[in-house]
Amino acid sequence: MIKSKILHYLNHLQDVDYLAEIVNSISDTELCNIINELLQSGNDEIFGSTCLFIRDLLVLGSRPHNREKFVKGYPESLIVKNLEQLLFSPNHFTRKQVVYTLGKACSYSSTTVLNQAFNTYRDTDPILLPRLIGEMAWLGAENFWELLDSIMSSQVYMTRWAVIGVLSEFVGDDAQVKDELFQSKLRCTEQLRQDSNILIQSEAEYEYQLLQLRSLTYNLPRAERKKKRKDLERQYKPAFCFTRMSSAFTNHLYTNGLAQYSVAELEAFILDMT
Question: How distant, in Å, are the alpha carbons of 62, 101, 127, 132, 220 from that of 92?
Fold first, then answer.
């Protein structure tokens, strides 16, 4: 019954009463055991639904009875240890769900294993990198820019291309005061616009020009800024970007029932796509 309720949470999104009904009907130990059993099911849909349940149970603001105790014990629970082990699953979709869940559940103790995952997948799962680096930053990784420098030094062009996908996740940089985020993004795009791969060159050039435009037009009226951006897009916006490619390839994997891929297969897909 509890398993079924967890798996059907998708039909009750953000329903605090539904969550309360689950946590009130079972002990924390029993709930953890059931969650771990579902995580080990080997079924992508069951795994995804269980991760969704974990995230919302921990993140939602309203706290049903018993949830506070569950939240307090979660960081040291077997659920986290289980997720950390599954981070090295051969299944790409499992890894992606784990990364997202560890990040959104604020598993600060998992930063070490996330760094290990980065070293493992930097050159073997490029489309995971934006999510992985993004959640590591969310958890306060102190080596964020070192990780990006490591990516940009890769011999795999798809890994280097992923840097642009990572940077697109971070907004709020203030061009007026030239804050650290703005300067770091500018430095990365300046380097990538000199890359040997034309796909990276094109998108990096576009992002570089956008940053330059922002620094020059932040004090202009909105209508004028909008016009200048449209002009820039007509001139520099690339036909293919990392985010679009990643989305298309992920859809390709899903529709063909594939749970893993090689860099050679990703490269072949990109060549066909472009």
Answer: 33, 14, 9, 12, 45
The sign of the torsion formed by the CA atoms of 169, 166, 138, 175 equals negative
Q: In angstroms, how far is the first alpha carbon of the chain from the final one? A: 49
Classify 66 in phi/psi space as left (phi over 0), alpha (psi -120 to 50) or beta: left
The DSSP-derived string for 130-184 is: HHHHHHHHHTT-TTHHHHHHHHHT-S-HHHHHHHHHHHTT-----TTTT-HHHHH
DSSP code of 90?
Answer: S
Q: What is the pTM of this model?
A: 0.89
Rg (CA), the chain: 21
* Ranges in the chain, pLDDT < 70: 61-67, 170-178
What span, in angstroms and rounded, lies between the C-alpha atoms of 224 and 233? 14
pLDDT of the residue at 46: 95
> d(Cα 148, Cα 162) in Å, to the nearest integer?
9
